[in-house]
């Protein structure tokens, strides 16, 4: 199928994982593009849930894509493409956390004098990206801060289950947990959010941490450039 036909099919139909992976294995840049546009937001949100930093989350997703696309032979279809990519980006994000902690430990060894942690006061928020302008309403800011403040174990479950609408079973497989543990952590996360936001969180959940428009396009083009597949 020529690339223009794949674009047309995307506009009228949904190419399945098998077709996309097959074309990507044959270095079809349009197949890579479709895969990224389809999964960018989910992968970004998973990375963001772990790293709690927009820029680092984007970097993690980009690295995960490069790793996935250069190891497509390892995708067997036992899980969905979304689940396979999610595991890769989760591993990348967790690896960054481990490296970050290792750097802090090394710094402590090199500088044993105790130092007070300085918490900067947010005098002014950075200007939002154009694509995020609609997401900077007060309730969404409150929501994102409240999610960031959740303990790591609760935050990752909440993002997977509520924001990304993954099933209990998908979340359990992704995070290596029992289904009952996923349910318990989700219940606790929701309670913490209700307490923090005074029950204002519900309507805004699905709009938190947007990743679309120019940000989505930029991510896609950067990965394609690194793979030398731009046409």
**Any idea what the CATH superfamily of the largest domain is called?**
RNA polymerase sigma factor, region 2, helix turn helix motif
What's the main sheet like?
A: none
Report the β-strand fraction as a percent range: under 5%
Structural class: mainly alpha
Q: Uncertain segments of ≥5 residues (pLDDT<50)?
A: 113-124
Q: C-alpha Rg, in Å?
A: 19 Å
| Element order: H for helix, E for strand | HHHHHHHHHH
Description:
- Helix content is 66%, strand content 0%.
- It has 231 residues and is mainly α.
- It has two domains: 9-110 and 210-231, Orthogonal Bundle (Rna Polymerase Sigma Factor, Chain: A); 136-208, Winged helix-like DNA-binding domain superfamily/Winged helix DNA-binding domain (Arc Repressor Mutant, subunit A, Orthogonal Bundle).
- α4 crosses α5 and α7 crosses α9 (179-197).
- It is globular and about 50 Å long.
Please specify the SSE layout and strand pairing:
Blueprint: H1 3-12, H2 17-25, H3 29-51, H4 54-69, H5 81-110, H6 138-149, H7 152-163, H8 168-175, H9 179-197, H10 213-226
Helix pairs in contact: 1-3, 2-3, 3-4, 3-5, 3-7, 3-10, 4-5, 4-10, 7-9, 8-9
Short structural summary:
By secondary structure, the chain is mainly alpha-helical.
Features:
Rna Polymerase Sigma Factor, Chain: A, globular, 231 residues, mainly alpha
